[in-house]
Amino acid sequence: MDLRVPEYAYMFGFLQADGNLYQGVGRKGCLTVEINARDIHILRQFQKLTPYYSNITARTRSTNFAESHSSTTWSLCSLKARTTLNELGLPYGRKSKTIAPPHGDFSPRDHLRGIIDADGSVGYTSKGFPFISLTTASTAIGTYLCGYTQKITGAERNIKRNARDAIYNILYTNENAQKLAADLYYSDCLSLDRKKSAADSLRSWARPAGMRVAPERRRWTAHEDRVLLRLNSDAAAAQELGRTEKSCCIRLWRLRTGQVPVPAAR
C-alpha cells in the first residue's frame, strides 16, 4: 500500500476517518467500513485495490435518524493487510482523537480528500455560498488540514474545540472553498460521486456584485505582545503598533487573564 499512489492515499484517509480496525484474540481481527448504501461504489473500488479476500454486505435497519436506513459494509480480515494499515497509522480500537497524517511519504491532497469524503461536507450554505468543512476530534488532522489549505488558498485558521462536544469544526467558504475544492477534487480522482459533483459545482459560483471581501485577520506576534505589555496602555500601543485601541484592549485583557500565553522576555 504505497501512499504516494493517489488511490491508496485516498483510501487510507477514508479508512482513518470512517473505518474500524478491530483486534481479536491471537491472530483474529477485522477491518470494517460501513457507509450509506448509495456510496457502495467506493467500497467496490477499495475491494479492487486490496490484494486480499474481502467481502461487501448490505443491511437495512431502523436508526435514530430514519425508520429505514440502508447501509453497506466492507470487511477485510487478512492479518497482513491489517498489520500494514496499522503500521501506516491506522490504530486499533477507538481512534477519533489519535489519527494523524500517515507515517512516511504520501500524497497529501488525496489523503485529505479521503478524510473529507468520510467526515466532511462540500456544497453550498443556506445562503448560497460555497463551503468545504471538516468535523474531527483529532488535533493532528485538524492542524494538517489548516496547514495544507493555507498553502493552497492563503487562508489562516486557528483551530479550537467547540464547547459542546470538544470537536473541531473547520470551515472554508467562498473563494477559499472554491480553490480548495478545485485542488482536492481534480479530474478523474477517486472520490465519492456525490462529493465530486458538489465540488465541481462550486466552480460556477461568482461573488455577487457589491459583496464585500473580508480582509484576512492580522495575527498578533510575540513582538507585538511584548510591546503591549511593556506600554500597558491601549492608546499608546495602538499608536506604536498601528492597531485600533479596541483590539489592543482585548489583546491585553487576554494576556492578563491567561487566555493567550505571555511571550518569553527578551
Give your account of this protein's structure:
- By secondary structure, this protein is an alpha+beta fold.
- Helices cover 41% and strands 18% of the residues.
- It contains 10 helices and 7 strands.
- It has a 4-stranded antiparallel beta sheet.
- Strand 3 (54-61) and strand 4 form a beta hairpin.
- The radius of gyration is 22 Å and the shape is globular.
Give the SSE map:
Blueprint: H1 6-18, E1 19-23, E2 29-36, H2 40-49, E3 54-61, E4 69-76, H3 79-88, H4 108-119, E5 120-124, E6 130-136, H5 139-153, E7 168-173, H6 174-184, H7 193-201, H8 222-231, H9 234-241, H10 245-256
Antiparallel strand pairs: 1-2, 2-4, 3-4, 5-6, 6-7
The radius of gyration is 22 Å
Strand order of the largest sheet: 1-2-4-3
Largest sheet: 4 strands, antiparallel
Shape: globular
Beta-strand residue percentage:
15-25%
Number of helices in the DSSP assignment: 10
Low-confidence stretches: none
What is the terminal separation in angstroms?
Answer: 49 Å
What's the rounded overall pLDDT mean? 90
Quickly give the structural class. alpha+beta
| Structure summary, number of beta strands | 7
What share of residues is helical? 40-55%
The succession of helices and strands, N to C, reads: HEEHEEHHEEHEHHHHH
